[in-house]
Structure formats: C-alpha cells, structure tokens
Amino acid sequence: MSWTIDEWFVVALARTIRPRETVFHGFGSPCAQVAMHVARRTHAPEMLLVEGAMYAVNPDPPFIPPTSNDASLSRGAAYSMRFEEFFDAAVRGDVDRMFLSGGQIDGFGNTNVTAIGPAGRPKVKLGGGGGGCNLSATIGHLTVWTTRHRSGRTLVGACDFITDLGHRTPQGSRAELGYTGGGPQWLVTELGVFDFPADRARLVQIFPDVSVAEVRAVTGFPLQVAGDLRVISPPSSAELAAVRSVDPLGVRRSEFSAGELARTFEPGHGQDCAC
Amino acid sequence: MSLQPPRDKRASLADVITLVSDDATVALGGGLSARLPMAMVRELVRQGRRGLHLIGSAHSIDVDLLVAVGAVRRCEESYVGFEQDLGLAPAYRRAAEEGTIEVAESCCATVLAQLRAAEMGLPFLPVRGVRGSDIRRLHPEYAEITCPFTGERLVAVPALRPAVALLHAPAGDRYGNLHLEQPYVLDERFAAASELVLATVDELVSTEEVVARGVTIPGHLVAAVAEAPFGAHPTSCYPRYAYDRDHLREYVSAAQSGPDGLEKYLATYVSGSEQSYQAAVGADRMAALTTWSDSTAGWQELFR
Description:
By secondary structure, chain A is of the alpha/beta class.
C-alpha cells in the first residue's frame, strides 16, 4: 500500500474534525470538501456535514465535481438549507468548524483571499472571500489550510489584506473585536501541521520527507516548533479507502503543484523524524 | 415599486433587457456555476449597457463577461472567479489591477444583511463580523454602532435596494411565478429587495404546472418574464442541464488571451442572438448536458 501527498493531506485535514461537530467548507475548497466526507466515513460518523455552496445537510455525493454548487453534492441529503439558514446558524454560533484557506496566511491565522499588493491597485486581484469575513468571527473553530506553503509566498509575516479573521489583527484581539468564535485551531500545510497556543502558529507535526529547516526557510513569520514535534501519523487503510471512494475524479489534486503531487509514501519509509 | 398585480408579463428577451438602464445597480441571481442569468447577461452585452453596479455573492462568467466588455463601473460581490478548477476571473482580475473598475468586495453575510434591511424597509442592520478586517476599509458607507441593549460594538451596514434583479429559473408561468431548484442562493432575497425583478425561464409552463413543482418566487414580485431555453448556459440549471465545463474553459482561455481572443469569443457566441448562441455551442453539446440524470457514471463523465 502506498499513498500520495494529496491523499495524506486530506486525511490530515479530516482529523481536525471532532466526532459530533457541525462542519462547513466554503466554495473552491476541494481538499476541505473531500476531508469532510472522509471524516464522516471514518472517525466522525455522527458529524453534521454542511456541504459548501449547496448547504446540503449530510449528503452522500456519488463523486465530488470540480465546482462547489453542483446538484451532485446534495445527493442523498434529506434537506438543503437556504443560503440564509446557513449564515444565520453560523452567525448565532451553531456551526462548530469551518475550513478556510488563503493566498496569504499570517502567524495569527489571518487570511488574505482578496488581493496581493495594495488593495486599491493590486498586483494580483484574487477571487475574494465569500462569506469568510463574517463567518470567521462567529464559527466555533477554524481549520486553516494551504497547499502552497513551499512557495515561500503563502505563510507571511503580515497579510497585504486581511479578509478573514485569525486570532488578532492590527485592530485588536478577537475579544476586543467582539468576536464569539474561537478562531484558528489548526493550520495544515503540505509540509506540516500547526496549532495555535497563545494565538500564534506553532509547528506540531511534520511530513516525513520534510525537515524543520525547510519549513523555516519558507515561513514568513518566526517559526515556533513544539518540543514534542512528531511525524504525522500515516493514513489508515480505512482513511485512504474513504479518500479514494469520495473523490474518484481526484478534484483534491487541483490544489497541488505537479511537483508536490510526485510525493509518494509507503508504510515505514522515512517516518522517523529526521529533524 | 408596489407589488406587481397579476397580468401576462411575457416579453422578449430584448424587451426585458431594455428595462435595465445604464448605470443601474443590478443584482445577479444564481452563483458560481449554477443558474447565472446568462441569456440576460449576453443581451446586456448586445445592447451595449454601460456603467453598471453589480451586486451578488459568489459569481463567475456573468460578472467577468460584463467586465470584459466594459459594461461595469463597480463590482460588489463576495467572490468572482472559477474556483480551484479554472482559477481567477481573467477580465475581472485585469480590470481590478488596472483600476478600470471599482472593486467594493463584500461578504456573503453582509450582502444578505443589507438585502434583508431593504426587504424590511429598514435603513440598516448590524453584523457581528467585518470589524478588524480590511473588507471594512473598502466600505466607507459602513458605520460602527453600540447596541442599546448589550453595549456591544457592531458594524451597521446600510440597506441595499438594487434597481433591478436578473433571475433565471428552470420554469415559470406567464404571470412570473417562478420555480427554482436549490441552490436558490440569494434569488429570493433579491426578488424581495429589488425595485424591479426581471426573469428568464428555460420553459414557460402553465400555472398549474409551476404550482405543482412549487413556486419559489411569486409572480407578484416579478415585473417581466422571457422564455430563454438554456438561458443559464454555460452554468447549470437543474433539473434540466448540468454546467458546461468545456465552454467555461473556452471562455476563460479566450478572456485570458487578451482583446483578440475575447473578440473572437464575442463574435462566435454573444453578438448575434440566443438562437445563434445555441447553434454555436451545438445542439449535441446542449443535449449531452441534459443527460446527467441517465446514470451516475454518465453524470460524472460530464465533469472530466
């Protein structure tokens, strides 16, 4: 049995979901989307899964399409929320977790999906944040992710523009801003997993083919490393089977560069942390 | 405008779109790859509308095409793009980077609150997020208030009453009663908040039939309705057709390539009429998109 980085990455995202949580992903988020279904088919069968831009409650899609509001994503659901039903639930605090990504992510877990460079005249205009600007304020916990950590441009000292809220912005802490949600709990990248003790990202797990020095070299904020840094547990056969059956079209792979997709792993290979 | 009394509201697509004036604030129904009002968008291009202020949640080819032809002054969506699959919106991105449109990027929940304020005849509603985010800086019209009951500091967002909402439905009747399938996105809110609601339907049916399927948006909110088969293409309009990923890819590629590529796309698909649009896409391709319900395997193949 061997597996690839996209499969292991999705499993790492899935493990951030706790058994009975209500969980949501935004559009354009194939890895998070697949991860939610993997969690529901493995360790979290009692979760309440709200499917992206369909707002379908616990669907069983026959496949994950490359767009987030196709009717295939609501197959098997008894009910799809209206847009406003979902947003009401989220702002009143009834949604436990959301997955968020960004073109830039800082050490507090703030994300930028709006623009690289000055907002008035951006160097690169990104697509925009969807509902994240409000949702990140009130949803219980956030799992932040990126598959572009190695680019050196994604984990930055400060975001050019803060679209979605982490633990603190230049205007204050979550408490000072009146936010009821807990903010980023995990940051998962293609190099490792961070938690947020004292509101700042700290590397706690690492993929076995990556060194701490490599992570430090591409991280724009000062890298904190947990004393008990560990290699990410390999995917179980059940987790791998779930990834492959949930996502037969492989839409999760669209988030990775070709170079990353070449990373393959086998049991026992290189899993003693070389760092 | 008061509620629309029952009458035969059928009109041609061209006549419907003459009701949209230059510089209007226009709400676009649907979202991402689902039920965008593309026939009306193409007709806006044909009629050469200018200076539009577009309102919406997460959008793609509708906004990008209107920006590409120079019809847009201001964009107030939460997202414009083609997701991870086809990436950034080429014309929107270029116009934002060159400063030829105003980008008042918003948030889905904020737009929702603003529409609800308009529906309720209120000047504003508060939201709990936005403070501390740079989205706040893009909107000098927002204000901060202190809740008179709890003392919380909240962001007040003003009522948003679009001049026109453009909605596409799979079916409707001559009185403007519309049946939609999920995702409704913001269509119901646009219908109630906007001054004028214009609709296209893939199929005009009897009132009995639209009632049997379920009226999602009632005729008393709708001013005019035009029959426009495949009026959401290249986006989906279930239960009739899935989205046309190949066509979206062709559009993105054309828009990325610059003025010549865009001109060629417009000449091939947009400049003529909806009939010539459908002919250019091809009857076989259109028919294939309606086969999604035949088998799961076949449905899945539409996305490869």
